[in-house]
Amino acid sequence: MILVGELGDLPPGESVRVHGDVAIAVFNVDGELYAIDDTCSHQDASLSDGWLEGCAVECPLHAACFDLKTGMPSGPPAKKPVRTHVVSVEDGLVYVHESSRVGGAVPEEVV
After folding, report:
1. What is the DSSP pairing of strand 23-29 with strand 56-58?
2. Contact yes or no for 27/94 (Cβ under 8 A)
3. DSSP string, 35-75
4. Cα 50 from chain centroid?
5. Whole-model pTM above 0.70?
6. Domain containing 87 — which CATH number?
7. Containing domain of residue 55, as a range?
8. Per-residue pLDDT tens digits for 30-41
9. Is 106 among the domain residues?
10. What are the Cα distances from residue 50, in Å, to 17, 53, 63, 78, 83?
């Protein structure tokens, strides 16, 4: 489990980059929190620096879009999905439960 920070420090429409085995981007979409691998699968660019469009993020480098729920790209230039991760809030603190595979996995302690 990776501590992201206080929920109040991640307002709607914002994102933050945290470090796990790889960098992870955490997004607040109208109060719903999502986490995906921070590096675009097309080329080395930080998705936390991208633009939120509904429940997707647009890569700032070549405009590839990734669904924050599934990690799937919406089309070229990205062809490979990124990993998704479970996000939880406990006592006002945001945590990421890092997944080991694309598609994400819900850790047993979160279920």
Report:
1. unpaired
2. no
3. EEESB-SSSS-BGGGSEEETTEEE-TTT--EEETTT--BSS
4. 11
5. yes
6. 2.102.10.10
7. 2-97
8. 999 999 999 999
9. no
10. 11, 10, 9, 14, 16
